[in-house]
From TrEMBL:
It comes from the Bacteria. SUPFAM superfamilies: Periplasmic binding protein-like II (SSF53850). Residues 1-31 form the signal peptide. Pfam families: SBP_bac_8. This is ABC transporter substrate-binding protein. Keywords: Signal. InterPro entries: SBP. Residues 32-52 are annotated as: Disordered.
Length: 334
């Protein structure tokens, strides 16, 4: 008999694969980024090392954005796309690609449950990690980015939905996580009430009705690279995007970030399933000693009190159901 965990993992894999195929059939557009001031204490793409130490993979944009703070760099830095499909592929092969990965906490919870990442030795000091498989790694942000060449005043999520006053395409993540929260923020729900609303059937219906209003204008993205292409190509007037994708020095497309009502996502370090025990202990020790952490807030900007921290516990409990509902909505004819 198939276990409940196996059934859940299989159901998620099927749902994600359907959304992946649907997203691949789209032609995600692009947008751009504004340059952040250099941060000397942070490490950038040129800082990858050629020694035989651990290889640590960070989320897209982190290296270009110079957004990883740590006192030293005793490992090689690489980038990965942050998706469960890639993690599953890399974690279940014989030879590990990475000693550790940066991962958002909503994915960490399911990856730990499904055995894609390892349970770590208990820390010597109390930890704030929500999972025995993770080491806290800071936060990243999903922000509203808009093309300053076509809109001179910073918009909010309500303006994002107002295609009559602000005509043009809109970019959104092809995932219920962050997208449903944004829909409720646009519908007037305060950040403090988003998860209470989304915890009810009426609240979920409200979020999907809001998405219905914008559906003809949406350009979907699945990965941060997709969001970057939407900006680089000017395929949307506004888009949700990881803030790091606005920070690469090479990005000159004129998009800027609206930090009001940004979504803050907790991050962790995790060790893939196929990393040998000795290597896992080594990299775990390094990460706990060095405490490298992600910081994507601009030097001159602090996200205001209107920001929303994504509720890891909510998504641990509701991801399967809302992913299925989102898939059904996405595949339905308008």
């Amino acid at each position: 008999m198939i276990s409940r965990i196996a059934r859940s993992a299989y159901a998620r894999a099927v749902a994600i694969n359907v959304l992946s195929l649907a997203a691949a059939s789209l032609n995600p557009a692009d947008a751009a980024h504004t340059h952040r001031h250099a941060r000397p204490a942070h490490h950038n793409a040129s800082a990858t090392r050629s020694n035989n130490g651990p290889v640590v993979a960070v989320l897209p944009g982190v290296l270009d954005a110079n957004a990883l703070a740590m006192p030293d760099q005793p490992f090689t830095l690489r980038s990965w796309d942050g998706t469960v499909e890639t993690l599953r592929k890399r974690a279940l092969i014989r030879s590990p690609s990475w000693s550790a990965i940066m991962i958002d906490n909503t994915l960490l919870q399911s990856a730990c449950r499904d055995g894609l990442v390892q349970m770590l030795p208990a820390p010597s000091a109390p930890s704030t990690s929500p999972s025995p498989c993770g080491i806290p790694a800071g936060q990243n942000s999903i922000v509203l980015a808009w093309d300053q060449r076509r809109a001179t005043v910073a918009p909010n999520w309500g303006d994002f939905w107002d295609v009559a006053r602000h005509p043009g395409k809109r970019g959104l993540r092809l995932d219920p996580r962050s997208t449903l929260e944004i829909a409720l923020l646009a519908d007037g729900v305060p950040a403090s009430g988003v998860y209470a609303t989304l915890s009810t059937a009426d609240g979920v219906d409200r979020a999907f009705r809001k998405l219905d209003q914008l559906r003809p204008y949406i350009v979907w993205w699945r990965t941060p690279e997709d969001a970057a292409r939407i900006m680089d190509n000017g395929s949307a007037l506004m888009t949700s995007t990881p803030a790091d994708e606005l920070a690469g020095a090479e990005r000159k497309s004129g998009f800027a970030a609206q930090w009001h009502q940004s979504l803050r996502q907790n991050l962790s370090w995790a060790v893939p399933h196929n990393v040998p025990d000795a290597d896992a202990r080594r990299v775990t020790g390094i990460l706990r000693e060095q405490n490298p952490h992600h910081d994507d807030a601009p030097d001159n900007t602090t996200p205001d009190s209107g920001s929303l921290t994504i509720d890891d516990g909510f998504w641990t409990n509701h991801l399967d159901d809302l992913e299925s509902r989102f898939q059904t909505w996405f595949n339905a004819k308008p």
